[in-house]
Amino acid sequence: MVPNTVETPSVETKNPYQLAMQNFEKAADVLELDEDTRTMIRNPERVLMVNVPVRMDNGHIQSFTGYRVQHNTARGPAKGGIRFHPGVTLEEVMALATWMTWKCAVVNIPYGGGKGGVACNPKEMSTGEIERLTRRYTSAILPIIGPDIDIPAPDVYTNSQIMAWIMDTYSMTRGHLVPGVVTGKPLCMGGSVGRNEATARGVFNTIECACQHLKIRLKGAKVVVQGFGNAGAISAHLLDSAQADVIAVSDSQGCIYNADGLHIPKLMLHKERTGSVKGFPGSEAITPEELLGLDCDILVPAALENMIDGNNARLIRAKIVAEAANGPVTPEADAILDDKGIFVIPDILCNAGGVTVSYFEWVQNEQHWAWDLNEVNTRLEKVMKRSFQEVLEVQQQRKTNMRTAANALAISRVVEASTIRGLYP
Questions:
Q1: pLDDT tens digits, one per residue of 179-189
Q2: Is 79 known to be catalytic?
Q3: Active site residue: 14, 115, 271, 319, which one?
Q4: Which domain holds residue 151?
């Protein structure tokens, strides 16, 4: 199993949950929420930390630490991915669960926010070890997941096969098949067509909206993609298909550049064959700093959180920053991008295509029905473009930036549901 490649986080130490709370408080101030309301929705509802002992191929047992966080379920079951990565921490998972709450609310699907992770390095593990880790972790979090409670999905270094193992483990304990316990499954196990490229397609849809709003012609637009995993590579492919010029991309092993545009289909094959974008014929190697500083129309951060911070945000010369990754821009960097007049499509809007099609998959499972690809993509485009316009309307009314507008819209919807439901007991 070859996991997606992502970049290493910034060396600057940051607590992602504190950064998430900074953005929450900023949006709450715009909404003029009182302290009681903030207290009701600010903190996670449930935090589970589990020990995951796994028998490795050498016969010895190794212990891993896993997490599952449910931030808010006022609007529906918790929804969020599971990542296998050596950098997984409780604070990171809490931040990601918080962002999932706002993400589901901003595109107005009936879910709350959840997230999970195991601190491990799947690149150094065999397929058998990853399967045993997955099943043991599933058993540990099993009491708090389910199709009406909390629905995991793929995230960094996890994929449809891992979702199938989670579904099978859960189903075996229930005595019958429960496909709706996870999304992002293989098609033969109740997965949805269009799910694999859904995040990138949502990124593309919101970029189209931003270009229309800013009167930037997408055909011939210069694009830079930071991170060439699933979301980054497919976003680059969709933009390339729309005749934009993808001039630079990067992954954890290197950055490449061609002023005339990279041949994205060939680059995707090169990455699949070699494991990296590095050494792609017809490109030149550049540094990560040079990549961010390229004169371009659209920058797509598609790696990990906090990749753009106060140290490198001043380098950026893009007109649009489209956040395909979760939390790629710190609040300090946000202020710099604002000062530079750069239009940011925030993560909770920009990359919400994945959770939207996950919702479609869950609906299909519940209905015991399957939609075709055209229906999935048409419904996704409608959701993404409607949500962009709703956020833009808030941004213009409140005279703020797009991130605060998206957070304000999402938080207002969670507040409404929480207030109507009330406190019990």
A1: 999 999 999 99
A2: no
A3: 115
A4: 43-179
